[in-house]
Amino acid sequence: MVAQAQETVFFQSKNVLITNTRMNLGGTTYATANVTSVSTLESKPGRKFEIISALIGLLVLAETFFGGIFFIALAVLVFMMKKSKFIVRLSTSANEKDALWSLDKNFIYSVVEAINEAIIFRG
């Protein structure tokens, strides 16, 4: 009879499970033994729309006050609504893979910390 090693859970959330043997990140499972490192990335949103809208607002402001204010307010609103996306990047001996993303920075940092713990635990 072969004794099975017990699986140690480092992190568990709605769609994430990190153990010493596997990582399930958003529905995709990776073997912890294949991951050599993990990192976080921040993907900032593009701001072209907001800049163009604000410039149009400034130009229209010379003709009609309320039209200009509308475009400027639209630019400010869209600017405030766009958020940075935080990404978990896994590295293996073969390649790098963006495995999970979220708008919640603390969630992504918790996942990365758990993956680091699992890699260290694995030895």
Automatic annotation (TrEMBL):
Keywords: Membrane, Transmembrane, Transmembrane helix. InterPro entries: DUF6232. The chain crosses the membrane at residues 51-79. It comes from the Bacteria. This is Uncharacterized protein. It comes from Planococcus wigleyi. The lineage of its organism: Bacteria, Bacillati, Bacillota, Bacilli, Bacillales.
